Amino acid sequence: MKPPPFEYYAPTTVEEALARLAEHGYDAKPLAGGQSLIPMMNFRLAQPSVLVDLNNIPDLSYIRPNEGGGLSIGAMARHSMVEKDALVAERAPLVHETMPKIATTQIRSRGTFGGSLAHADPSAELVCASVALDGKFKVVSQQRERWIPANEFFLGLFTSALEPEELLVEIQLPPFPKRTGWSLMEIARRPHDFCLIGVAATLTLGKKDQCKKARLVYLSAGDGPMVGQQAAKVLEGQSISPELFEEAAEVASSADIDPSSDIHATAEFRRHLANVLTRRALEEAYKRAIPNI
Amino acid sequence: MAYHKITLTINGEPEQVDVPSNMTLLKMLRERLGKTGTKNGCAAGECGACTVMVNGEPVNSCMILAVECDGSEIVTVEGLSDHGSLAPIQEAIMESGGVQCGFCTPGILIASQALLNRNPNPSEAEIREALVGNLCRCTGYVRIIEAVQAAAQMV
Amino acid sequence: MTTTVVHERIPEPIGESKPRLDNRKKVTGAATYADDMQFGSGLLYARILHSPHPHALIKSINISRAKALPGVKAVVTGEDFPGFIGLYLQDRHIFCRDRVRYVGDPVAGVAATSEEIAVKAVNLIEVEYEVLEPVVNPEFGASPDAPLVHPQLSEYKVVPFILPQAGTNISNLFKVRKGDVGAAWEKCAAIVERKYRIPHIQHVPIEPHVAIAQVDETGEVTLWGSSQSPFAQRNLIAQALGISQSDMRVVAPYVGGGFGSKAGVSMEALAVAIATKVRGRPVKLRLTREEEFYTAFVRQELISYFKMGCDKNGKILAMENRFYWGGGAYTEYGVNVTRAAGYSSTGPYEVPNVKTDSYCVYTNHPVGGPMRGFGMPEMHTGLEQCIDDLAHEIGIDPVEIRRRNCIREGSILVTGSKMHPTGLPQCIEETAKAIQWGQKASPSAPNKRRGKGTAIMWKAPAMPPNAGSSAWVELAEDGTVTVGLGGQDLGQGTFTVCAQMAAAALGVPYESVRIATPVDTRFSPYEWQTVASRLTWSMGNAVVSAAQDARRQILDLVSEAWGEDPEDLDIRNGVVVSYKSEQEIPLKDMVIYGLPKPNDSGWMGGPIRGRGKFMPTYVTSLDPETGQGERAVVHYTTGSQSVELEVDLDTGQVEILRGASSFDVGKAINPEMVKAQMEGGFVQGLSSALFEEMKMVDGYMQNPSFVDYRIATTTDAPSDLQSVIVEVPQDDGPWGARGIGEHSMVATAAAIANAIFDAVGIRMEGPPFSAEKIYLAMLDAGIVE
Q: Inter-chain contact A5–B21, Cβ cutoff 8 Å?
């Protein structure tokens, strides 16, 4: 099958792209890497009548350091570019670890950082990693520019805070805190499949090596990235021990997530796996936090 | 429906093609340019049989519109050999016995060549990771992986 | 090891790992597959309207709106094609006529000037259905309470060795009654009884089905398609359309993987049927991957019951097996899977007392067809776990119980025939050695458990007793050789192997041999089908015989010209040589133009063309009540597989660390290609064991895409995969060769199941052995909390 016909525009500036989107409203769809959109169009699950291709806007593809230690990633930076980037490895190790786990080489060649986030798939690694890292998304339209915190950006299944005439143009990641470890773990039927469950974790240690701050964000665990808020409460302020991690895992898997059953796994099994992964991810993050003293 | 005139190079040769907006790169290659070496196995980006290089990067050509490729350099399996002289990866996969039905082979060759271009000496694990998006139902992958290792030695 | 056939000399290049003939075409993109063929601007595109219901009566079909759509050239329905089609049991119409029997059953077809118009037209066809209760479980389907899927079963045309049961859903019943099972149980020191359930899976060639059909003004039909069975398609489609086989031509270019899915006839008949309504124009039907899942052949599902017992030394005394094969909506081909499972139902063991009932049952599931292994993987997956359980029950090592009971030369088989020489005992030793059986390595992490498992197998070519092959061999002006054959290279390498055999039998270099491709029923010699792992043996025999015929013609000519005894002549490396006179003449100087007679008195000879054929002549029928007979099959290929794996106690995930395969192939014509079959089969077996299942709910498939139906990829295949060739010659195989293509995945799933048991002590009802199933089984067994 091929997609139904549509108008195609290839603007070379953000302004031009925004003008097209404003002109066509709900009928238009921005095309980033297309690695979700094109197959959806091939199967006629999406039928936009106007496609605004962002691939010719060089200004959207960059990775830049920010003052104070964070970094900014242009929405059209391709996964393969982020994967290889030394600055990302240094300043956003969780993102660096995440990149090779996304889909396949072919898809990472073409797929973009911003496209993956705008698609708002709750099983997408970057969606959860960006929330775990407290990223901020720069969203622009002809009328306005706004910054949306990652944890407010994802509203539900394939639903984000983006309005039809808006574009996600940049993702800002704050400086990676000191004494912080990270982990991204997934369990899939095969590596690189959509995972049955996954977790992006960061763990910041305080002066006495206690847990100062913890972020656990779960993939494929609900209608959006599921934040382990109650688990974080269990962890924060406590001294690290296997028992603590176990308790956090128990709380996260029973109270923080809302997985559903499908043909690949039951909700109960996903909760069990979330429990296992929480412990493993916290242990890995803890090990990585320690050498940063 | 709007047609778009695009200019691109296919295996080093400049081409100008009028394509409708909804035509994928795969369809253009196979149906407009006679490059039938690139195969259609699923049209959903899941099997890798349609892998080609766009500006040096391996991509599933079923998941890119032809219009997106205006100005791009495309390499298909037909472009791996140079006037009849085969690339090391082609020689190596013949030698290792990594070809059976041959339907996944073009995609495997392109993905492997792209890997060797960015990493001339990949480990076995890196080869497996690089080819994870290329399904093969015949070989069990053993000899394909051997071929990439051998090609790395040949370069 | 026993050898009955002694070959005085193994000529070159038999036993040499020659590169594939089609290598270069395949690595440069030059190999033409059906979808690559060009048909010009007259080409029409076909689309099919499929049944949305698993079981329903068709009340009415309205095609008027579809027909009126500009660009639509034909709309056809079952009304247009009353004929039946089917390989062993003619139970299928090309398009449904009064009833649909699975989700995907073809109801109507459209040909249009573009794919878009064809899709639109299909959506304009209105069908009214009366929905019926579907049969979704073969065991229930075999019961008298089940609704009938084929009420007219008793009227269908069927071959003599298939036994449909009128008034039921049972389209074949194969029975074995051997010895006295009832009396044997009392003598057993251990008895185990088990039930297994093997789900439908699919072949998943990476190339989807494609067929292009054209009917000319005189009614001659040409079909180009991705096909394992050009001649069977010619025969069956011609019969269904009521035309002569000679007016039906099938051309089969390169095939992008088959594994059984492109055997017999499936969607090809649809393309031909539609083409009959648009004379002169080629019609192309190409399945999408989704249609591939919904409408192409699937592997039959199986519910199996085993009961087996042994004495205190582990000697198996009796087996009682019941198989309910879920044959799907049409069992025209699948009925023979049931039969094959029946006559192989003991597995590769000598068992004196056997009772087997193997039922082929209609269900409202997709059509069960032939798939790599032809019932043997499904059957062995249960049987070989059961053998392991019996070993544990009696306290004997699993490899040892196989040593003690496996068939050997002279063993009396389940059908009463005698086993030919076999290397099975050696295969068992080879895989045990490769996997270091008996040595337990420690797991890689505290939360993991390591296990080893082994399983053995046998499989005969499942085919009619008189399935034949033929071949020709021609030489060109330069002395190069072209071999005509009608079997197909699906990737397994049969063209290469046949070229090697022709080279050896004729006495020419391998490099000078070509295969006449594409296979074309108008020009290629007859071949029953590319199935049953029978080509190396059967078509190989025909090729050798054709090459020998050509050789004889050449030597007769030269001996006459030279006035020598043909016995003193030989062909070596493309040159006729006399060992007596030491004269030489290259083939190129005589194979077309002949040789001059002495004294300028004219010429003799002429273009050389060798002919050959092969058909087994010794297979007998079996008693319908007991399954006993003199010789049930042509031969059995046997082998063994072992695996080592780790199970994650926390998650239930399995990692296959190592695999080993060993098969007795009689003679490996091309050893590296034999090993490649063993590797590919192992990984396909692994994939079926760990990932694959067509998830059916009330007759509806839930996972018709590569996202949801997963097959093994690079990261799933173990890097340590050993393959050991055993060679105990087949008395009527070319240089002793017999087949290996399908056998390589027969024992894999069972070996994996046995290794999981070894690691964590759990058994599951059936694959795929997903993390969740394993974890739940460990929970049940109290292995984890």
A: yes
How many whole angstroms separate alpha carbon C359 and alpha carbon C322? Answer: 8
ipTM topping 0.90: yes
Predicted pLDDT of residue A218: 98
Whether the per-residue pLDDT at C1 is higher than 60: the answer is: no
Tell me the percentage of chain B whose pLDDT exceeds 90. 96
- Which CATH entry fits the domain spanning C298-463+620-780: 3.30.365.10, 3.30.70.100, 3.30.450.20, 3.30.420.380? 3.30.365.10
What stretch(es) of chain C map to CATH 3.30.365.10? 23-31+467-614, 298-463+620-780
Query: Residues A57-109: pLDDT tens digits?
Result: 999 999 999 999 999 999 999 999 999 999 999 999 999 999 999 999 999 99
Q: State the pLDDT confidence band at C3, using cuts at 50, 70 and 90.
A: very low
* CATH number for the domain whose boundaries are B88-154: 1.10.150.120
Angle at B78 between CA B76 and CA B83, to 5 degrees: 135
* A10, A38, A100 ranked by CB distance to B64: nearest: A38
CATH topology of domain C37-132+212-282: Aldehyde Oxidoreductase; domain 3 (3.90.1170)
Nearest CA in chain C to A194: C707
| Cβ count within 10 A of residue C57 | 14
Closest Cα of chain B to A6: distance in Å? 7
Percent of chain B with pLDDT over 70: 99
The verdict on A272 touching C (C-beta cutoff 8 Å) is yes
Contact B90 C205 (CB under 8 A): no
The Cα of A105 is separated from the nearest Cα of chain B by a number of Å equal to 6
The shortest C-alpha distance from C505 to chain A (Å) reads 47
For residue B106, whether the previous peptide bond is cis, meaning omega lies within 30 degrees of 0, is: no
Interface with A, mutate which of B31, B50, B68 (most A CBs under 10 A): B68
Contacting chains of A (3 CB pairs or more, <8 Å) are B, C
Tokens 């024992």 found at: C747
**What percentage of chain C exceeds 90 in pLDDT?**
98
Q: Is there a contact between C203 and C491 (Cβ–Cβ < 8 Å)?
A: no
Query: Per-residue pLDDT for A110 more than 80?
Result: yes
Q: With bands split at pLDDT 50, 70 and 90, how would you rate the model's confidence at A5?
A: confident
Mutate to test the interface with C, among B101, B124, B139 (most CBs of C within 10 A): B101
CATH superfamily to which B3-79 belongs: Beta-grasp domain (3.10.20.30)
Q: Is C612 helix (H, G, I), strand (E, B) or coil?
A: strand
- Asked if the model's pLDDT at residue A166 lies above 90, the reply is yes
Q: What is the pTM of this model?
A: 0.97
Partner C contacted by A44 (CB < 8 A):
no
Structure tokens at B52: 């080609």
At residue C274 the predicted structure's pLDDT band, cuts being 50, 70 and 90, is: very high
> CB-based contact (8 Å) between A190 and chain C?
yes
Condensed to tens digits (0 to 9), the pLDDT of residues C519-571 reads 999 999 999 999 999 999 999 999 999 999 999 999 999 999 999 999 999 99
- Give me the amino acid identity at C437: W
Q: Which of residues 98-127 of A touch B (CB under 8 A)?
A: 100, 103-107, 109-110
Tokens of B125: 């694990």
A39–B24 C-beta distance less than 8 A? no
- Nearest CB among A192, A193, A266 relative to C772 is that of A266
Q: Is the Cβ pair B42, C490 closer than 8 Å?
A: no
Closest by Cβ to B47, choosing from C206, C676, C680: C206
CB pair distance less than 8 Å for B128 and C256:
no
- Picking from C493, C449, C539, C548, the residue whose alpha carbon sits closest to that of residue C671 is C493
d(CA C651, CA A270) in angstroms, rounded, equals 10
Q: What is the pLDDT of residues C351-385, one digit of tens each?
A: 999 999 999 999 999 999 999 999 999 999 999 99
Q: Do B102 and C713 touch (CB under 8 A)?
A: no
CA distance C783 to A272: 16
Concatenated DSSP letters of C308-354: EEE-TT--EEEEEEEEEEEEES--TTTHHHHHHHHHTTT-SB--SEE
